Amino acid sequence: xxxxxxxxxxxxxxxxxxxxxxxxxxxxxxxxxxxxxxxxxxxxxxxxxxxxxxxxxxxxxxxxxxxxxxxxxxxxxxxxxxxxxxxxxxxxxxxxxxxxxxxxxxxxxxxxxxxxxxxxxxxxxxxxxxxxxxxxxxxxxxxxxxxxxxxxxxxxxxxxxxxxxxxxxxxxxxxxxxxxxxxxxxxxxxxxxxxxxxxxxxxxxxxxxxxxxxxxxxxxxxxxxxxxxxxxxxxxxxxxxxxxxxxxxxxxxxxxxxxxxxxxxxxxxxxxxxxxxxxxxxxxxxxxxxxxxxxxxxxxxxxxxxxxxxxxxx
Length: 314
What we know:
The protein has helices at 2-26, 41-54, 68-74, 104-111, 140-147, 280-298, 306-313, and strands at 35-38, 81-85, 93-100, 126-134, 155-165, 173-174, 176-188, 191-200, 208-212, 221-227, 239-252, 260-272, 275-276. The protein starts with a helix and ends with a helix. A hairpin with a 7-residue loop joins strand 11 and strand 12. Strands 1, 2, 3, 4, 5, 7, 8, 11, 12 and 13 form a 10-stranded mixed β-sheet that branches. A 3-stranded antiparallel β-sheet has the order 6-9-10, with no helix packed on it. The protein is of the alpha+beta class.
């Protein structure tokens, strides 16, 4: 009896050990301390509206309701503040903004080209991605790019996408999941906005072990088919991305000026045993990692013309 009674106690101890380890691993303070600011309520209401729409057929977005988003991008902000919310879609979320010294057509010609893999522009975050369903057929991306020739042109692409992301820097885990996605192009004031909204469709597959090889900036990763994480004593832990979303605006305020303001709102619920281990500063760190790579590629003077790159990869 004493021997049998030992196992429930040991199991409880093991669970507590895992919880404590995950807490220490994921819940530490950011390397650079930020002041925290709440994302304004009117912005949160628009974000909620977009996430509800992307999950609900026919996924039609009323762009007339979106003005608080570019207004937030244009508002003065503290350069040392972490803008966050802990309750949007029941998961922590954060905001990141940066600028690209190019125009919106340049961005669209690369990132909305069916022949150019998304990993080309998001090498630090994506291993594989691709549309699995697109309402109206895959020619919709061509029509979206063509609509950009008209300053007042509007167009919307709706569908689903399959994702496989790169290994997490802390645990080595990487995940595979599907998303609902809406892309909308519309005029705003004297410029144009490209809006990209995505929401994860249910929990991911169980996390698999991977490694970041060398410096993260080298974008070199090793992938295995082994379940678990690369943390001593916890290699067996089964982790998941339970939910996530991303909302990105690319706003060219003046069509005669080659500059685009990029703002991203992102939320993540991921962890072990249905416990979310992600904090807003983890999300912000991930977004800055992604934006650095994106900016490096799109502003690189050695980047081939989109037509040349598309023809090469077709």
